[in-house]
Amino acid sequence: MRDAFIAELTRLAAEDPMVTLITGDLGFGVLTEFSERFPNQFINAGVAEQNMTGMACGLALEGHKVYTYSIGNFTTLRCLEQIRNDICYHDCDVTVVSVGGGFSYGQLGVSHFATEDLAIMRALPNMMVVAPSDPWETAVLTRQMAAIPGPKYLRLDKGKAGLPEDGQNVQLGKARKVREGTDITFVVTGAILAEALAAAETLQQDGVSARILTLNSVKPFDKEAILAAAVETGGIVSIEEHIKTGGMAGAIAETCLMGGISPSIFQSIGLEDSFPSIVGDQDYLRKEYNLDASSIVEIVRNVL
User: Fold this and answer.
1) What is the DSSP string of 196-258?
2) Is pLDDT at 27 greater than 80 in this prediction?
3) The pTM is what?
């Protein structure tokens, strides 16, 4: 996803000299072409994310379209006050780019687990929250986001769902139905969609028909698609590589409650309210914390 984002941002920078990328001393291999082609649109702020965010706000107030770029929690939690008070309060055109959503950097430990970011960024006024599921979708959404002014958060995963490219049917803020089903609906955000797709195939062998909706945006949120799924299928299973509290599962529950719809089944698959205590690669951690396809299958079998 990172490479797809940078490739699309490079194209945007060629079209608009006000596109500006600020990195927190990260990503030089992938950023080399951008920095060499557009030296006046590139800044290395160093390992100083709070300064990077304040700088982004100032540039945006002068008309620049700014992107801040670093690892997961470094562009978000380390500089949350500046995101809130500078970028969001002033409604600045700044896109906060987080490389390594969820367990992408799982071998580096809890400081690098981006597992609360959706909830935190979703709570900020004016902030859009976007999480693609595939590299090609990342490119499509990067261009669509660039056309919308204001604060935005782009959560990039190391993985990919592996779906065929279908850019014509990707619309920012709208759910995409990637699998038909009548018994249950999986609602997924991010590249963990790959696990949901595999789980649905296994459940099909049991005679369980699972619809899958992938959400490229947690804010704005496609309430209509969620309410329709709650009515048309036997229930909703929320799947996210994120803590259960306040993220996509919370948005689904809020939508159903305020929409007057009570799904016969509502199951949240995500991390519990505690810090993960082990390290390992993304696949290993998904299995350990019941986010892999096999775990999803067992959870769904138990609730049906």
Assistant:
1) HHHHHHHHHHTT--EEEEEESEEES--HHHHHHHHHHSS-EEEEEEEESTTSHHHHHHHHHHH
2) no
3) 0.96
